[in-house]
């Protein structure tokens, strides 16, 4: 794994490039609707390695892991909650193998799907589930833990705390925002970019940011708000390839690699330190973004 931490490199002013979407690749390799993606880390290990390697080859400085739904709560839906540790270790090992010694592995941790506000889960239950996943991902070789697609402040706070208190990994936390009728941005639970940024820094996150829900152009506005609230914090962005449109009953993400890359410099000016992709993005998108940033 890399000798330097991500945050240490970002302090030098370098802009780093992250990876892109994983779900599209899994589907292309034969994953059927209703299958557990995380199970592929054991049953189709080489295919998972190949996805991560495709982004490394495209020029990404870091790659995620196939572990977005790897909490025991999410795995329960497949009857795999007792295999959470095994599946997360395998997910990290797959990306570690692809990343080699000179790229970072930022292991994915997604929401549990449980709501504290409705009392269907306790804070302690959430903490233990996030702890189990975080520890396993570190054991598998992760350099950082990317807690992503969050909407609820309290759940994200617990996830960050569980990761910081039980691993030595750097911790990233990103939220998904939607533009309201007023033109500002909020998560599904009503959290603004500024509030999300300050809350996660308070929780102990090393890197904050936003992912999914928006294309590159809208991410510029979100990053500006985060940067105003957190002048010194590293900010990561994983943007969609535009907003999805329905074509022949299928969701299609319309932004080409050139279109996404065209917004990359403005995103850097807004305050982004790490730029990658989310839904709809491919190695071609990541390669184009890297070229735009590095030029």
Walk me through this protein's architecture:
The chain has helices at 6-10, 23-28, 40-43, 45-58, 72-76, 84-99, 123-140, 153-166, 193-203, 216-229, 257-262, 264-270, 283-294; strands at residues 16-17, 62-63, 104-109, 144-150, 170-175, 178-179, 185-186, 207-211, 235-239, 245-247, 250-252, 274-277. With 295 residues, the chain is of the alpha/beta class. The chain has one domain (6-294): TIM Barrel (Alpha-Beta Barrel). The protein has an eight-stranded parallel beta sheet with strand order 1-12-9-8-5-4-3-2. A two-stranded antiparallel ribbon has the order 6-7. The chain has a two-stranded antiparallel ribbon with strand order 10-11. The chain is globular and about 45 Å long. The mean pLDDT is 96.
């Amino acid at each position: 794994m890399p000798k330097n931490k991500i945050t240490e490199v970002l302090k030098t002013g370098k802009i780093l490039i992250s990876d892109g979407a994983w779900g599209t690749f899994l589907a292309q390799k034969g994953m059927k609707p209703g299958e557990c993606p995380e199970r592929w880390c054991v049953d189709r290990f080489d295919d998972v390695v190949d996805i991560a390697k495709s982004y490394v080859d495209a020029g990404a400085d870091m790659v995620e892991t196939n572990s977005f739904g790897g909490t025991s709560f999410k795995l329960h839906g497949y009857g795999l909650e007792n295999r959470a540790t095994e599946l997360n270790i395998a997910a990290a090992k797959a990306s570690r193998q692809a990343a080699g010694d000179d790229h970072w592995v930022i292991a994915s941790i997604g929401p549990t799907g449980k709501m504290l506000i409705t009392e269907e889960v306790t804070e302690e239950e959430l903490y233990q589930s996030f702890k189990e996943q975080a520890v396993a991902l570190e054991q598998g070789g992760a350099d950082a833990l990317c807690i992503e697609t969050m909407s609820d402040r309290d759940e994200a706070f617990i996830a960050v705390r569980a990761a910081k208190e039980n691993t030595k990994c750097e911790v990233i936390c990103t939220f998904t925002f939607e533009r309201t009728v007023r033109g500002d941005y909020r998560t599904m639970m009503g959290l603004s970019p500024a509030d999300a940024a300050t809350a996660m820094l308070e929780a102990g996150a090393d890197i904050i940011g936003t992912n999914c829900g928006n294309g590159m152009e809208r991410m510029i506005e979100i990053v500006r708000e985060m940067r105003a609230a957190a002048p010194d914090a590293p900010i990561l962005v994983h943007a969609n390839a535009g907003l999805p449109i329905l074509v022949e009953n299928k969701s299609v993400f319309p932004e080409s690699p050139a279109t996404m890359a065209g917004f990359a410099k403005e995103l850097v000016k807004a305050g982004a330190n790490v730029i990658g992709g989310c839904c709809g993005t491919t190695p071609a998108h990541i390669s184009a973004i890297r070229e735009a940033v590095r030029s």
